[in-house]
Each structure stands twice: as C-alpha cells, then as structure tokens.
Amino acid sequence: MSKVLSRRDLDFLLYEWLGAESLTARERFAEHSRETFDAFLDVSQQIAERDFAPHNRAGDLAEPTFDGEKVTIIPEVSRALRVFAESGLPAAGMDAEHGGLQLPHVVQRACFLWFQAANTATSAYAMLTAGNAHLLLTHGTEEQIRRYVHPMIEGRFTGTMCLSEPQAGSSLSDVTTKATPQADGTYRIDGGKMWISGGDHELSENIIHLVLARVEGAPAGVKGLSLFIVPKRNLETGERNGVVLAGLNHKMGYRGTTNAVLAFEGAAAELVGEEGRGLAYMFHMMNEARIGVGSGAVALGYTGYLHALAYARERLQGRPVSGKDPLAPPVPIVEHPDVRRMLLASKSYVEGGLALVLYAAKLLDEPSPENDLLLDVLTPIVKAWPSQWCRLADDHAIQVHGGYGYTREYPVEQFYRDNRLNSIHEGTDGIQALDLLGRKVTMRGGAGLGLLLDRIRATASKAPAELGGPVLSAADRLAATTAKLWATGDPSSALVNATAYLDAAGHLVIAWLWLEQLLAAEGKDGDFYQGKRLAARYFVTHELPRIGPMLDLLDSGDTLLRDMDDAWLG
Amino acid sequence: MSKVLSRRDLDFLLYEWLGAESLTARERFAEHSRETFDAFLDVSQQIAERDFAPHNRAGDLAEPTFDGEKVTIIPEVSRALRVFAESGLPAAGMDAEHGGLQLPHVVQRACFLWFQAANTATSAYAMLTAGNAHLLLTHGTEEQIRRYVHPMIEGRFTGTMCLSEPQAGSSLSDVTTKATPQADGTYRIDGGKMWISGGDHELSENIIHLVLARVEGAPAGVKGLSLFIVPKRNLETGERNGVVLAGLNHKMGYRGTTNAVLAFEGAAAELVGEEGRGLAYMFHMMNEARIGVGSGAVALGYTGYLHALAYARERLQGRPVSGKDPLAPPVPIVEHPDVRRMLLASKSYVEGGLALVLYAAKLLDEPSPENDLLLDVLTPIVKAWPSQWCRLADDHAIQVHGGYGYTREYPVEQFYRDNRLNSIHEGTDGIQALDLLGRKVTMRGGAGLGLLLDRIRATASKAPAELGGPVLSAADRLAATTAKLWATGDPSSALVNATAYLDAAGHLVIAWLWLEQLLAAEGKDGDFYQGKRLAARYFVTHELPRIGPMLDLLDSGDTLLRDMDDAWLG
C-alpha cells in the first residue's frame, strides 16, 4: 500500500460520496468520464511516487543556497517539475480555448494532493505557478494570458505572489511598495517584498511576480493597492528586470521551497486590470492558495498517518495490559489502545480533512450563488482546520514511532516540521478566525452560515440518531452562539474569542463530513467501510465534544483577552 | 529582562509561595539561609546566560559528529560544562560527608532550570551525570561512590543510563543484554543499547554507564534485570573498555546532546547492589530523570514564552478591530486579542508548570510517608503535562512571531524542536498515563490520589468561590471517575482511555497550583501580582473546562479503542 496517499480513499470520496462522475453531465466537463478522471489520478500517483517522493528528504537536507549570483537547488526538483509540466497536469483544468482539458476542480485537487503528500516543497513551485496563472486567466488581458500564462502552463515560466513586506505581513493596508506610471502605460516598481515563496531560482526560464503596490497618490489602506505583473526577465531580450534577490530565509521545514526577500528597484511592470483593485484580484489567488494550503496540510498529515500505521503494524513491543506474561511474545504496537487512539484520531483528521478540501473543490465545479457563498464561509476553515489538526496527525506519527520518529533517519519528523508552516502562510490561523467570525458568518445577513448549517442539519437528520443527534445539537448551538456574539454589534467584544469560534466551527464541519462519509458507506461491507464507520463514530463521540467548552466560553461573553492589561503578562 | 527565565517568578514561587526559607529549620539545611539560596540562584543565572545560552544555536547547527574514531562536539560545550562543574553546583545538593553542601532539592531544581532554559542540549550532560551519581550514592558501595561518584561531582567523569535496546524501548522486560559473572566477582557485559544520551563524546575523562542487563539463568521479565557500572575506560589503566560506539542518531532537535547506539562487547562491569534488583535501582534514576524531563519542558516553554512576549511588545502590525482607520499608526501586536490569547495561555502553562516542578522538588526536601506518596502520584504528571503544554507554549511562540518564528534566524523554532523530545524519552506520555491510572492512583487503596485530592480541595476551599468552585467540582469528578473506572477491576477496560485521564488529572493539578499562586499573591499590588491573578483566572475559566469532555468520555465507559479491529484503520 502506498504510504504517500490512499487511492482507495480518494476513489471513495470522489465517486461513492461526491458523485464526481455526475459532473460529466455538465457542458464544461462533457468530454470527460470516469476513465479520464482515473487516468489523471493514475498519472499523478505515478509521477508523485516516482519523481517527487524520492527527493523529499534530499531537498530538506540540501536546502536552496544563494551565492550572491544565483540560487542553487538540487537537480531533482527541476527534473520533477519538468515531468509534472510534460504530463499536461498544469493545463488540465483550464479552458479549452487556452489549450486546457477542462478537468473538474475536484479531480485536479485530488491529483495535486499526491504531489503535496509526496513532496510539499517541490510541489509548492507548481502550486504558486497555477495560482498565478489562474489569477491572470480571470483578470488579465488576452495579451497578458498569451505572454505570461501560456509559458507557465508549458512549464517554461513559474509564478509568485508578492504581498508581504517586512513591516506588512498580516496587515496588507501597510504595503508601501510604490508603482510609478510611465509614459508608455507601463509602470516602474520600487520597494521591498518579504516571504516570497519561489521568489528566485533557476528552475524556469522566467519568474512572473504578481506584486501588490501603491500608485503614487493612491489612497491609504487596501483601497490604494494595485496589482502588477513583474517578470524577472524581459520577455523579449531576456535581460534581468530590476528585481534583486536580497536574501533567502532559512526555515524550520518546507526547506526545499525558496523563500526570498526581494528588492524591486525600478522594475518594469504591467498593471493587471484597473488601479485600486489589486487586493480584490489578489484575493482570487489568495482564496485558491488558502485552499491549497489546507490541502497541503491534509496531504502532509495523511502521509504521516500512513507511515505511522505501517510502522505500528510492524513494530513489536510490549504486551496487552491484561495478561502481562513476560514469556508471551511482544505484540505489534497497533494492538495497544493508546497507539490506536493516536492512529484513529489521525485517521479521523486526515480523512476528514481530505473530505473537506474535496468538498470545497467541488463547489467550484458547480458554481451557483449558493455554492459560492458556501465556499466563502468554508474557506477559512479549509485553510485553518487541517493546518492545526492534520499537523497533529504528524505529531502523533512521531509519537507512534517513539524515539525513531524523532530522528532524521525516519521521514515523519520532516512532515511535522513542514506542516508547521501551514498555520502561518496565506493568513495565520488567527487571521482566518477573524475572517470567519468577523466577515464570513455575518455577510449577507448571515446567509452563508445559514446555508452551511442547513446542509449540516440535513445530513445529521439522515444519520443514525446516536451520531446525528450530537451534530444537530452542535449546529443549533453554533447558530445560537453566533447570534448572541453579534447581538450587540460590537466587534471588539464579538471577536475577542474568535479562535475558539473557528475551532468549534471547524470541528462541527468535520463531524458533518464524517456523517456524510458514514452515509456514503451505508450498507457496504469490508474493512474499508468498517473503517469509515469507526472513524465517524470516533470523531462524533471523542472529538466533537471538545467544542462544548469553546461554545461555553463564547456564550459567556468573556472579554478577559480584551480587558486585560498587557503589563500583567510579565 | 532576561529572556531565559524569570528570576522574579522563581523568587515568588520559592519564597512567597513555597516558603523555601523555612526549610532551614530542618537539620539537613541548617547551614543555609535565604542568602545562600540566592547566591546559588545568582550564579546559576550568570553561568547559564554567559556560558550556556550563547552556543545554543551553534550546538543545533553543528551537531556532534562521529568519524569512526571519536565524537567531535563544538568546544563551547566542554567549556560550559567545566564552568558548571567548577561552580560547585554538581555537589551542592549532596551530603556533607561526600563534600556536598546539602542545598535543598527545590533550590537545586530552580538553579538547574536556568541551564535547561539556556541550553537544553548542553545541560543534558550535567543532568544525566547527576542522576547517575545520585543513584550510586543511594545504592552503590562506599568504594563505588569514591571511584565513580566523586569524579562525576568534580566534573571529570560524566554518566549515562543504558536501558533501551533496539527491540526494547517502552518494554524493558525484553532487555536481552547479557551479564556473565567472572571468577573475581566482576561481570562481562554483551549486548546492544539504543538511545543512549551522552553515550559517547570527549567531554570528560571517562563515561560511567549504568547498564541494565540479565545475568545468565535469571528469570524472564523485569525481575531478571540487574544493574551494572560499566566505565568507558579502565579507571586504573585508562584503556578502553569493551564499549563501542556503533553510531549516533540524528535528531530533529536536542541536537547538541549525543544520542548513541552502543555495543557492549565483553565490557568489564561491576554489579550495583544485588542481582535481580536492577530495575528497582534504575527507577531511582528514572524518577529523577522524569522530573528532570518535565523541568526541561517547562524551561524550554518558559524561554519560548519570554521571547514571544518581548517580540509581541516590539512588533507593530495592524490596528484594533474596532476602528480600522488605515491612517492610524499600527499597534504592537500584544494589543490584539488572539496574540494575548497565545501569550496568556503560554504564561499559564509555563508558570503553572514551573510551580509543579518546584512543588515536586520540595516534596523531596520534606520526606514523609505522605510526601513520598504524593510525589509518586505526581511524577507521571510532572513528566507528561509540561511535555505537552509547555511545548504548546513554544508552538505559540512561533505563531506569535509569524513567518519570522518559522525561520532559523529566530530562536523559537529550535525551542519547539527541542521540546518535542520530552514527550518521548524517559517513558512516553502514553506510558505515563498507564503509570498514573494503572499504578499510582490505585496503589495503597488509592491513598495517593486521596491525598492529592485532599490538598486540592483544601486550597480550593480557601480561594474565591468563582475560581475555587470549578476546581472543587473537578476534584470531585476525578475522584468519582477514578472509582468508576476501577469498579470492575478489569485493566483492559479501565485503562483504555488512560491518556484522557492523565490529561484531565494534569489540568486539574495545574488549576490547583494556580489557586495556590493566587492565594500567595493575595493582597499584593503591582503588575507581577496582577499577572498571577490574571493567569489564575484564565487557567480556571478558559483551560480547566477542557477536562469536562475527557471525564465524560471516561465516565461513559467507552471501549472503542480496545474493541475496534485494527484492520479497519486502512
């Protein structure tokens, strides 16, 4: 069995639960069939296992270096990305008019999870490039698409998103990078950007930076931000543009992906769309990146879980607590309840997280006002929940391995380090919490949350009462808590415990998706389906109750964190 | 303010809460006074900050290497250990008859925390040596004390504990290392040992290994284990004994401490005490090591918290949620509720953990049947609770730092990696859970747990009802849950959710110790005492409620983890 990801589970979620085949009834996907979906899944697994997984550790040990001239990365990375580009996967989801195959998002997501699970650092170059291309496909001109997107699809160019600056991380309203209009309609960019993943390297002929900057005289705050295309090299001459690599950051994990400090020094740039709408455009890429980050967290947790499970079945140690006969042979550690606790919890996190990211992806395939709204509400949860809980699966994977898991001779410690980033980049967990409680559940009079809760209740009503009941109650409580929090309309009290709200909503959503899986497994026999029933029961009975104290805190209206004096912290 | 540890907090806990000065009324400590205690605390801080902290990162970046001949470690480590030995700290707690100063355990513990917080990897050599020496002082002969312990006190020798083998980690009953009696009363040791911290290096003239092995013909299981002294070099000739370094393990963190695979090949050995009592003796060192591990977890969490707090007060980013005027200047991030949540939670974990380890240490200073029993019950909590929750403080420290925290340019990511080991070595968290619920709370008819709950109730009764009440209720619930779990006497059902029990008991104990601190701060003014009141309130109102669902699970008698089929895991 693959230790990268589970094709069996993907098939279950795609076909037995989400009915991905029915998408082929839609005009956009009419050329597709289960066979074409499976072909993409097959090739993704094959390339991920053959070209991505084997250098995962090498990329961690030999991280990119910068000698003042250029960035050196182990050659396996560019080879893997070339194979990826040649497979046709980068264009698979795009419109036929751009040479794409109009593969559904949900299948693309499933395919890309293989790469993220096999080698999160190498896959990040592809993910950023795809996000960049998708933004330009939506908001760029035909000319920009031809010049920038087509070479990205062909694997000749890569892309980045340049938002943060040393003084502007979570707070993009403080971006100071300046754009100066030129007589010919182009712009020059000056300023410093920070935390640019894939910001410099020699993996591609060119790097297309999408840069948030402020045109002189633009208003303060996010409304003054515009978005620019800044290529590393002039497309015609091949000469370097004014984009200087000021240094690489050295991370705890995710080491194979360069993370750069970039100085823009009179860099030639083209405007995307209209001035002043930069952040709105960027959120196109950002929302996709947030789902990508959540997916990456799922992928790393999933591979950690599979490694832990395989180890627990092989490793002999100890005897059952009842019957400690020292002469009895030791048992595989998977027989010890505490090891099972860690494995079953991990299974419930990673398979629940996988269901979440695929559900979100399918919403994109069936656009409607309802589905768009639902995706808006779910996005902060898709980003933050796996970043926290699928990371815990990697933590458990270390613990299951014991001392071995803490060594670099085993892969799980890298998964744990790599996964730690996902709670930080593309908006920290705390930012997601403010987004969920401060914007998403209040927008359109709470219609998005209402829709989500309706879907949760509909599922819970169909499930056996012993598992459906707790989920129904939790949905009702979340509705009441939300109303109570916003009753005063005062953000400073409503948002003070926003993280508890995100945590509670996240666990409720995953409990719902476990009921969905339970129903999809109904009446089916065999270990796989028994596993789904087991994990659904576990999640509802062992995990969902965690949210009780969170909702109690929110309901209490406690504002300790607002009212305290920070001088008391020590 | 020091970012290593807080002397103000140590003073509060030692003098205002635990009344450490009153120990000087005891004959053993009659030569001491607040002044001598303070002098040891001062020198510890000074050496820790001057000789240990500065090479913490260097020891991580340049981990020990083995060239087949000898182990190379950065020279700062041996210099620091030499200063430590020359300070007199290693002998400070020992009996006057062995050249010691009979410093109370609680003061020694406070002193040693400075070294663990400044540089956990370098301090580990000293900790292991101390544990080794203490075991021999208790169970060795006068001759063994003179030959082995005195050079350890002088800093010339270091010590290890050799328990684990590749096939015997958590399960010591499977130890197969063999001891063969010689005609002269000595033994020869043959076998392989694994995970030996400080197992080989050139930091000392000699390394004294304490080795668990089985004399031929001894019974199977732990009753057949004996304990042996195996020096790396013959004390008289200086020649190498049959102890071969087979390799070093490469860890995720804690890298500065060598971790060795050792092959014993006819190594000359002396028996400690009597044959067949090896594990009982080793538990002398093991219990001390478990408290040392808990202390190390506290120390790493504490320094992480102090770094995060300092950063949060400096770093400007964003504006309060009510009043997002983009022209307003950004505020220090310590003003954002979610950052305060992470800081206040961390404060409650690390100061609560510090109270726990000092409380445990003081029990050793006032030996009595009651105190010994209480220490027995508390030991698994002292080991496991900080390993989990003070590590979370390091996790929060990364998150507070944002992207910066994830880079190796800042120190917090190392604390996080280093602290991950503490849930594994000297008995995993899962082993501690079985120890607590399976042995400690049932021994002597539950007298130990009864004593602990009595103390908790006595404190809670004195605290303001709004905080004392929840702690009283939790103590009553834990008592009832414990009785219910063991009502059937069947370990396979009683122990199935042992980890939930350990987690619940741990949070209750910390809540109790926060009430203790609240009472010790009563009537005192100023930010420091306000901080104690704030954290006590936070822990009881935001943290203690977590245990509700844990106790619910335990009360439900759920045996899912025992009854499930592991084939269902996937």
UniProtKB/TrEMBL annotation, chains A, B:
Residues 276-435 form the Acyl-CoA dehydrogenase/oxidase C-terminal domain. Keywords: FAD, Flavoprotein, Oxidoreductase. Residues 452-565 form the Acetyl-CoA dehydrogenase-like C-terminal domain. Residues 38-155 form the Acyl-CoA dehydrogenase/oxidase N-terminal domain. Belongs to the acyl-CoA dehydrogenase family. It comes from Actinoplanes campanulatus. Its cofactor is FAD. Residues 161-265 form the Acyl-CoA oxidase/dehydrogenase middle domain. This is Alkylation response protein AidB-like acyl-CoA dehydrogenase. GO terms for molecular function: flavin adenine dinucleotide binding; oxidoreductase activity, acting on the CH-CH group of donors. Gene3D superfamilies: Acyl-CoA dehydrogenase/oxidase, N-terminal domain (1.10.540.10), Butyryl-CoA Dehydrogenase, subunit A, domain 2 (2.40.110.10), Butyryl-CoA Dehydrogenase, subunit A, domain 3 (1.20.140.10). InterPro entries: Acyl-CoA_dh-like_C_dom, Acyl-CoA_Oxase/DH_mid-dom, Acyl-CoA_Oxase/DH_mid-dom_sf, AcylCo_DH-like_C, AcylCo_DH/oxidase_C, AcylCoA_DH/ox_N, AcylCoA_DH/ox_N_sf, AcylCoA_DH/oxidase_NM_dom_sf.
